Each structure stands twice: as structure tokens, then as C-alpha cells.
Amino acid sequence: MILNTNPRNSSMSFFWLFPFLLHLSFAYSLSSPSALAQNFIYINYSCPGTIILSYSRNSTYFTNLKTLLSSLSSRNASYSSGFQTATAGQAPDRVTGLFLCRGDVSQEVCRNCVAFSVNETLDFFPNSKEVVLYYDEYMLRYSHRNILSTVTYNGSAILLNGVNISSTNQNQVDQFRDLVSSTLNQAAVEAANNSKKFYTRKVIIPQTLYLLVQCTPDLTRQDCLRCLQKSINGMPLYLIGGRFLYPSCNSRYEIYAFYNETATRTSPPPSLPPGSTPQQQLKLAPPPQISIRAVFCFRAKKTNTTFEREPLTEESDDITTAGSLQFDFKAIEAATNKFCETNKLGQGGFGEVYKGIFPSGAQVAVKRLSKTSGQGEREFANEVVVVAKLQHRNLVRLLGFCLERDERILVYEFVPNKSLDYFIFDSTMQSLLDWTRRYKIIGGIARGILYLHQDSRLTIIHRDLKAGNILLDADMNAKIADFGMARIFGMDQTEANTRRIVGTYGYMSPEYAMYGQFSMKSDVYSFGVLVLEIISGKKNSNVYQFDSASAGNLVTYTWRLWSNGSPLELVDPSFHDNYRINEVTRCIHIALLCVQEEAEDRPTMSAIVQMLTTSSMALAVPQRPGFFFRSSKHEQVGLVDRLSINTSALYSVDDASITNVTPR
Q1: Are 308 and 331 in contact (CB under 8 A)?
Q2: Mean pLDDT, range 116-124, rounded to an integer
């Protein structure tokens, strides 16, 4: 569908280039419910109970569920209002459910929709206690919890038309986004204030833009408005269409009439205010091959239906169950091109990492875990939920997991600029990270570890902090990867001693490497090593010659320079003279405090962050680093002489290592 533009017209106009197949997927007649019943369009689903909460076919819960579904689809249901709730049974086997038809569909269409989904839901989810089914025209939902008159954000879905608005003038794109946002928010206010909790609106730009918002009518005005605003804020409004669905509300905008205008009270279409119409042409970028965020599956009897869950763009604090984070294996397999070697980003002790691209163009990092965990499925899923709740700007975000076919897969946000080791240890890439950027990276790592240690909902000790586990985003901000892997893999995160050493040679603190004793101070030691690597562009695991008679690693080399009063000899030559001497010297000082032999002599991460941000704060005098241990004869012995250790070099993107250490 192409709308041509008259170049002589000074007002803004659009080339609406829309994929033909997408248009067909919505081309149904609202006046033909029988045809509609044969082609209901599945949008998405949420099944939080598939892993943790289930029932058997001979249970009381199943009997109550059948009663509930029968009530929702009965002739006495409120199809005229498009909304019905029901409850069956008593606690703990009580089932609560509802359906919500889109406000513009007819009573007959609503009845057929509900009957269709009720007949199909038990086939799709034969054992799940909690289900949300999203269709194009309605939603069906039931749960073992009381879901009535309660806002729910868990189980959301986002669908975006992948065609970008593009222009030579960014102001035009900003005007489009602002217009969509303001109009949707105005519609949200109108919906929250009417009893049906439904509202549509058109706006002329000069092309017509169609918008729709809806809540479940059992919500209060405040809850409905809050839910819709959260839904609107969850959409990137630089595309020509999209929708965001919560179980309690949804919002949508398109450039075509996707609802029945004659069945709604649509306000008169306003135009752009005088003087705000851009003078240059706003056009659409070339469309991608697939322009829908989630797969639309036309359901027919006895055919397989593929559901695809893709990561949400917003950060959510509403993660409560493993089901809300679960990905379909087929979707992940397709996104990674069946885990193709060309998509491989790295490999470590926990498994291999692949780049994945969903049909919408959303990119993720897929970690295919090795099958060495002793956990059961429930424990694994529960720990993923715990780690996924850890969200900080300096942590790589865990989006979800897959637990199918003996596969254990973690899905992370994709961080585009690879890992820190890719830059600082490569002579051709070092110059891309000047001191200003590296200083910012040091601060970001410190804040991320502080969050894990102190500011998150639970204490997480990383245990494998290294340059390969520091990823860099598009703005070269540091993002810590592989945190919480000890929890996910079923290793004891709380005990101070462990027989399974997880870490990388050169980064492990003496007490952890020698005796398996770990604490937050173990991460502090690793941070100190990492800071020295960032400053020098050298690996700690390499051997550095002091003179003809002695050599050591980067930590001991730094200590020798510090003791000799020449710490700036450590500085990466790629800086030339473009660095602040006081900043570099202070960072070396802090790093040496972090690698002290005794854990109690090392500062906490909160103190380190304060040291980095407050230049006037006095620093303690560092002692000899912890790389050295005194034997019974008080001779200096290197750590490598005391351990039987795997020192194979690791160089990868977002990898993780498990190094087996055997104390003597």
C-alpha cells in the first residue's frame, strides 16, 4: 500500500510502504464472524506455570478449571459488554478467570472468539495453572491466584511493526513520536474515565493514524491509567505501528484502520498544530524481511502452532515466575541459525555463547550451558528468576531461559562492542580506548560489583571477574557478564568454603585459589587485577621480567614499580601523554589496596567507589600484594609454584571459565 506525495505541497506527507503479507494478516471482515472463527490470529501467550505450577488431569483443580471455562463460554456470559469474570472451587484449588474482547468487536464475534479459545486452551496448556492467551480480537486468562480487580504486569507481550520512520531531519521523527505518545496518553485518560475502559482515536499527520487503548473494566480509574501509561511507555514510538499488551491493559497504534470505526465512538481526527508541520518529506526506511515483533500463527485444527517469546525493551521489576522468562527452543534455534558456528561469540567453562537475531531484528546473546549442573528443572528455573531480577546499568541483563530437550539455555541482552579483553590486549585496538574511556569503564565496573555485593536484593559474589566478562555497549559503557552463574549452576553461593573453584588464573585471590575460601573480598582482589590490566593493557597471567634475576606477573611487576617510585611506567603506551597523572596514579594505588594478601586488608566495594569519586579521600599505604606467600622458611614463593592449575589462555566474547585448582 503506497500513498504518493505531491512535491508541490508544502505540508508534510508520507510514503507509507507496508509489507503486503502483513496487510493480509489483518485483512479480515468484522461482519463475518464465521470466517473469523476459522482464522483467529494468535498474538502471544504467557504461561508462567509451565515449570513450577502444574496440575494433573485427575485433580480437583482440573475439575474446577473445566467448570470455569464452561462458565466463561456459556450462553449467559456477558458478550455484549465484551468482559466476563468467573470463579470456580475453593482454596487451594480455586480457579479465577476472565475474557476481554476488544471494544469494537460485535457480540457474536466475541462469543465465537471465546468459544474457540476455551476449546483450544486445554490442548495448548494441558497442565498449567496460570495462562494468558492473547488473540488479535480478545484475551483469555485464568489462574490459581485471584486476578480480579488487580493490575498484573507479569506476562506481557510487545509486537512492533519493524518499519522505521526515517528522515533527514530528526525533528520530524521526534514530532511523530511526540504526537503518538501524547495522543495515546490522552486516549488513556479517556479510557480510564469511562466504564468500558476502552477508547479509540484518530489523528491526521496528514495521513491518518489509528490508536486504541483498553483495560479490563474491573480496574479502578487509577489502576487503569497507570497500566496504560506503563504500556505506552513500553513501546518505541519511532516505528509505524506497534502494540504493548499486559494482562490488565493494552495499547496500540497503526497507520491503517485495524478496528471497526463504526462500532466505536472515535473522536474527530485532530491535525498537527499550525507551524508544527515539517517542511521536508518524512519517509519510511526500507522494510525488513519480517516486520512483526512476534510471530502471528493462524490456528487450524490438528496443526502445530509455534509461539515465540521475544525480550521486552523495557526494564521490568515485575518478574515473579519462571514462566514469564521462558523462551521457546525452536525460536532460539531459529534465531541462532541452529547454533551455527558463524554465530558463535565465545566459549567458556559454563558453555558456548551465540548471537541470536529474532524475526523483528531484536538481537540477543544465547548461552548454551554445558550439562553439568546437578539441579533439577524447578531449582534451575527458580535461580534464573532470582538472577533476572538483578538489574543495573553496569550489568548485562538476563532476559530469560529455555529448558527443553535436555537443553539449558540463558538468553541475555546483546552487547555490541564485544568484551574488554578484545580491546585492551590487542595492539591494534588499544588506541580505541583512551584513558578517559578506561577511567569511565573502571568506575562502571566498580558500581556494578557494588550493586551485586550490597545494593541488590541479595548478595551475589561473582567469582570470575575478568576482562573477558566485562562487555562494552554502544557507548563503551562497562557491563558485567556471567554474574550469578554459581546460583544458576547449583553451586553453593553462601558457604565460605567450596571444593569447586570457579575462576580464571591470574584473577583469583590467594585464599580462594589455595583453600577455596571466597567472599566479597575475593571479587575485590579480582577487581584490583582488572584495574591494573586496564591501565597497562597487559595481562596479569603473562610473565614480566624485572631484571636478569627475577620475574613475575603484572601484580608483582606493578608492586616493584610502585616501590621504586615509578608507577607511571605501567601506563599503556597507546595513551601517549593524553591522561591525567593523578587519576592514573590513584587508580594504581587503589588496585594495589585491592590485591593485598589478607582479605581483611582489602577495601570494600563501597569504599572503592568512594575512593574513585572523591579525590580528596586519603588512601591507606599498600603492602606487598597477595600473589606472594611465605613458606615455613619465609622464602618468597609464587602462587603458580604452590598450585596444580590449568593456565590455558582464554580469549573470547562473554565467555566463562571453570578452572580446577587442587591445593597441595
Answers
A1: yes
A2: 78
DSSP 8-state assignment for residue 596: B
Angle at 126 between CA 134 and CA 374, to 5 degrees: 105
Q: Quickly tell me which residue has 566478562 as its cell.
A: 469
323 and 248, same domain (yes or no): no
pTM for this prediction: 0.52
Domain assignment of residue 297, yes or no:
no
By DSSP bridging, strand 165-166 and strand 198-204 are: unpaired
| 270 found inside a domain | yes
Strand order through the sheet with 95-101? 83-88, 95-101, 138-143, 131-135, 41-46, 297-298
User: What is the span of the domain harbouring residue 494?
Assistant: 420-663
Closest CA to 214 of 166, 261, 248: 248
User: In this structure, are 496 and 581 located in the same domain?
Assistant: yes
**pLDDT tier at 263 (50, 70, 90 boundaries)?**
confident
Quote the cell numbers at residue 313: 525493551
464 is catalytic: yes
Burial of 635 (0-12, 13-18, 19+ CB in 10 A): exposed
Alpha helices in 454-599 (DSSP H): 485-488, 510-515, 520-536, 554-563, 581-594
Q: Do residues 474 and 417 touch, judged by C-beta distance below 8 A? A: yes
The sheet carrying 157-160 orders its strands as 157-160, 242-245, 249-254, 208-215, 198-204
567 and 535 together in one domain: yes
Assigned C-alpha cell, 591: 588496585
Query: For 532-576, what is each residue's pLDDT tens digit?
Result: 999 999 998 877 766 655 668 899 999 999 999 999 999 999 999
634: cell is 619465609
The mean pLDDT value for 418-441 works out to 92
Q: Which of 136, 223, 464, 482 is catalytic?
A: 464
